[in-house]
Every structure is written in C-alpha cells, then in structure tokens.
Amino acid sequence: MIAIMGAGAFGTALALTLGREGEVTLWARDADHVTEMARTRENARRLPGAAFPYGVRVSEHVEALRLAQTVLLAVPMQRLRAVLEEHAGTLAGKTLVACCKGVELDTQQGPVQIIAETVPDATPAIVTGPGFANDIARGLPTAMTLACADALIGAALQDALSTGNLRLYRTTDTIGAELGGALKNVMAIACGATIGAGFGESARAALMTRGYAEMQRMAQALGARPETLSGLSGFGDLILTCTSEQSRNMRFGLSIGRGEGFDPNITVEGAATARAAALRARALQVEMPITEIVALLVAGELRVDAALDRLLSRPLKEE
Ligand SMILES: NC(=O)C1=CN([C@@H]2O[C@H](COP(=O)(O)OP(=O)(O)OC[C@H]3O[C@@H](n4cnc5c(N)ncnc54)[C@H](OP(=O)(O)O)[C@@H]3O)[C@@H](O)[C@H]2O)C=CC1
Ligand SMILES: O=C(CO)COP(=O)(O)O
C-alpha cells in the first residue's frame, strides 16, 4: 500500500492520481483539515476543485501509515527533518520517497541525505521534475523523474507510482535529481524578478541558460551525472518553473521585481534554498553568481536594479 505524508497541493495531487488506480492513504497533521476532507472529498484549503476518487483515504493518525511499505513525503523542504524525526519509529524500514524540492538551510543537505540520517534503515528515493499539482490532479499528462540509488527498488517504485497521467522516468542518480529540483526554483525567482522589473524576455533566456550552467557546476562538484541535470528533474523543471506564472517561485520573483509584497504563507522553496545553495557553493568554491544574487534579493539585502548591474559588470569570459 502507498501512503502520503502532507496534504498540501502536491501531496493531494499525488493522492488523486494514485487513488484513481488503486488505494492510497493521505495523512495530514491537522485533524480538522482531515475531517473537512473526509466530509467534502476535496482539499479545499490546498487544492480546491479536485474531487477525491474512491481510492483516497484520509487520516490524521500516523498509525494509518503502518501498513504502507512506501510513504511519499510531500511536506515543504525546511520541515522534512522535523517530520521524519517525529515519526521515525513509524517510518522505520519503509521506502521513503521525498516529494519536496530544496536544500535544507541549516545543514545544506538535500532530502535524500536527510532521510538517510533520520530514518537510517529506510530506503530513500525522490520524485521530482516538471509537474504542477493542478495539472496532475486534473489528469493532464505529466512526466517526472524517480531517483533511487537501489536500482531494483527504483524499478519497482517506477511501476508502483506511475499512473495514466504521471509517467515516471528512472535514475539511480539521487544527487543530480534532487539538485535539479532544488536549484531550478532559485532560477525561477531570478527570472520572475527580471520579468517583474521589466528587463524583458531576452534577459530571462540569458538567466535560464546561465542558471542552468550554475546548476550543472554545483551538481558535478557534488558527484551528480550531467545527463540527470539535462533531464526532466533539471532542464525540464527549469523550463516549466521559469516560464509559467503557475509557479509560486516565479510569482515570488515577480513580486520582488515589482517591489510588491508576497503572502508569507505560500510555500516558496527557492527562497531558503537560494541561501543554502549559496553557502554550499562558497564552501565548494563553485561559482554561482545568480544563486548568490537571489540569496541577497530574498534577504532584502540587494535591489533588483543593483542585482542586474552586478551581473552585467562581471568579467567577460568564454561560454
Ligand atoms: N505544488 C506543486 O505544484 C508541486 C510541489 N512540489 C513540492 O512539494 C513540496 C510541498 O509543496 P506543496 O504541497 O505545493 O505545498 P503546500 O504549501 O501546498 O502544502 C504544504 C503542506 O505541508 C504540510 N506541512 C507543513 N509542515 C508540516 C509538518 N511539520 N508536519 C506535517 N505536515 C506539514 C502543510 O500542512 P498544513 O496544511 O497543516 O499547514 C501543508 O499541507 C514542496 O517541496 C514543493 O516544491 C513538487 C512538485 C509540484
Ligand atoms: O515544482 C513545481 C513544478 O514542477 C512547482 O513549482 P512552484 O513550487 O514554484 O509552484
């Protein structure tokens, strides 16, 4: 059986697509939220307008996860460690599939390493790539990456988690998969800020391309395979997130560029990840000027016009 921890937009979308073809348990921490979802068969708080199919069960009891061999972890990146620590006993020995995108601010670790540290006898994996919760929930076609260092378990997960509208491609390169998903959000903030400030589409294309070069540099410094970054989890998600206003990271960037406020309750993974990735890049001595600038922008330590000046005044070099 499959279970999902976290009834946010993405956890709910995964429950919907899996629940159309089998049984899935969706766990949320808030009992009132669970009661509401059970009564209305909808998650009006996080993914309104998408009716739960028959196969979706909801629960606020972590014991409901005991029967599941595979648990998808769909909580925000900066909360992942706390959730795993709190429920490590229940999750021991299971296959734990991170569904979050980012780098932990305090440790500069990704989700797979956090799973390995907090639930050492679990098998970690990650699902990441271009796919908006709304699209998945509506049954629109999507393709993402499933990464698991254990190739046999990865193949079984690929079968178990692929659905009629969610096609999973498989890799054993968990480092590349999680870095692609984490860093594309940073680039989406940069692109949003650029568009919001009125710098134009050409500037966005330049940022996406140079941002992709940064993603490759860091990934390779950490031992990822270049082809993982050029796949769905890297290049694919970079395109989606940097070009669509459905993306919260993109919209957050737009608000920075326009000098407007942004609802702090909206999950924007790229904000903390920019700061974490900038720290990691410095420690690795990897050059990541766009990431550095996004880290300063989100901290309010740099204005968008000064950020542009800083990028344009860098020494000219070979591509
Ligand atoms: N939305 C999307 O299109 C996609 C999102 N993702 C990734 O999925 C991850 C989650 O994003 P998303 O679902 O959109 O975020 P949302 O903001 O929609 O939801 C986050 C959910 O996490 C829950 N949560 C937060 N902290 C805890 C905790 N300590 N214990 C239990 N539950 C907790 C929240 O519960 P509560 O409601 O009680 O606050 C909420 O239901 C992110 O890393 C994102 O990058 C990946 C692909 C697509
Ligand atoms: O990761 C996503 C799509 O692949 C969702 O992006 P946002 O978190 O920016 O909304």
From TrEMBL:
Residues in Glycerol-3-phosphate dehydrogenase NAD-dependent N-terminal domain copies: 2-150
Residue ranges annotated for the Glycerol-3-phosphate dehydrogenase NAD-dependent C-terminal domain, each copy included: 173-308
Keyword annotations of the record: Cytoplasm, Lipid biosynthesis, Lipid metabolism, NAD, NADP, Nucleotide-binding, Oxidoreductase, Phospholipid biosynthesis, Phospholipid metabolism
Binding site for NADPH: 10, 29, 101, 133, 248, 269
One Pfam family this sequence matches: NAD_Gly3P_dh_C
Keyword Lipid biosynthesis (UniProt): yes
Enzyme active site: 184
Domain of life per record: Bacteria
Positions bound to substrate: 101, 248-249
Pathway(s) it belongs to: Membrane lipid metabolism; glycerophospholipid metabolism
Molecular function via GO: glycerol-3-phosphate dehydrogenase (NAD+) activity; glycerol-3-phosphate dehydrogenase (NADP+) activity; NAD binding
Protein location: Cytoplasm
Binding positions (sn-glycerol 3-phosphate): 101, 129, 184, 237, 247-249
One GO-annotated biological process of the protein: glycerol-3-phosphate catabolic process
NCBIfam families to which the protein is assigned, alphabetical: PRK00094.1-2, PRK00094.1-4
Function summary: Catalyzes the reduction of the glycolytic intermediate dihydroxyacetone phosphate (DHAP) to sn-glycerol 3-phosphate (G3P), the key precursor for phospholipid synthesis.
Annotated family: Belongs to the NAD-dependent glycerol-3-phosphate dehydrogenase family.
Name the UniProt record assigns to this protein: Glycerol-3-phosphate dehydrogenase [NAD(P)+]
Primary gene name: gpsA
